[in-house]
Specification:
Residues 34-49 have a biased composition (Gly residues). Residues 28-55 are annotated as: Disordered. Among the domains are: 58-93, no CATH class; 99-156, no CATH class; 170-226, no CATH class. It is built from 3 helices and 12 strands, in the order ααββββββββββαββ. It has helices at residues 6-20, 27-42, 197-200; strands at residues 72-75, 81-86, 89-93, 126-129, 136-141, 147-149, 159-161, 165-167, 171-177, 181-187, 209-214, 217-221. The chain has a 4-stranded mixed sheet with strand order 10-9-12-11, with no helix packed on it. It has a 3-stranded antiparallel sheet with strand order 1-2-3, with no helix packed on it. Strands 4-5-6 form a 3-stranded antiparallel sheet, with no helix packed on it. The termini are far apart.
Length: 226
């Protein structure tokens, strides 16, 4: 078809486009726009697992939980309790503790004497009674690594043993001398009879011999250690 008149061509062109039903589109701009939309969808990833945290207090075994699998919750400074969430319930995991805290002394330590401080050092506080069924008192290993007692005086009938212990009524102070001196409190092996080596030999233990016993004190020596 010939269009000698340019204006006639411009008038017919829209009709041709409408009849063909095809319009060229810039594929580059379309692709960029589409990928941008997909990127927005991808940004919604993450199922919210990070919202779950360990409870502030140690949970009870078997109680419901929602902590993500594999996450462990620890409670305590020394030999802590380790808990994990399994199948929706709390379980306590076995944990080793080496070395464990030192247990409370069998006899009350004297106020102001040294102790092994720290959370993994000395078990503390320690509670004692001056007499069976009597009033109790407590000694605590402080941050200064010193025992502090809430009773300023010795129990009635008690004696000091070395520079660290008090032996309560019914006990005697046993001093074991080898390469140094060790002090322990032991039940009076002779009572109600007077204390003597004849009846106190047993408190010295293997490898030691009683060389003196009187009042509330027994002195034992290691013959092989000389």
């Amino acid at each position: 078809m010939l269009f000698p008149n340019p204006r006639a061509f411009l008038l017919v062109l829209p009709v041709l486009v409408a009849c063909s039903g095809k319009v060229d589109v810039d594929q580059t701009s379309t692709s960029t726009s589409g990928s941008g939309g997909q990127g927005g969808t991808g940004g919604s990833g993450g199922s919210g697992g990070s919202d779950s945290t360990c409870p502030a207090e140690q949970p009870a075994v078997g109680a419901p939980c929602d902590v993500p699998p594999g996450e462990e919750c620890s409670y305590g400074e020394c030999c802590p309790g380790i808990f994990a969430c399994e199948a929706g319930s709390w379980v306590e995991l076995p944990v080793g503790c080496a070395p464990p805290p030192v247990p409370c002394p069998a006899s009350p330590p004297l106020d102001g004497t040294s102790c092994l401080g720290g959370p993994c050092g000395q078990t503390s506080p320690c509670t004692y009674a001056c007499a069976p069924g009597g009033a109790s008192f407590t000694v605590t290993c402080g941050d200064d690594n010193v025992w502090h007692s809430d009773m300023s005086s010795l129990c009635n009938g008690a004696v000091t043993c070395g520079d660290k212990l008090q032996c309560l009524e019914g006990y005697v102070c046993v001093t074991k001398q080898a390469f140094g001196s060790e002090y322990v409190c032991a039940p009076d092996p002779c009572g109600p009879d007077p204390l003597s080596c004849a009846c106190a030999e047993s408190v010295c233990g293997d490898g030691f011999a009683c060389i003196q016993a009187s009042g509330k004190n027994v002195l034992c020596e290691c013959p092989a250690c000389k």
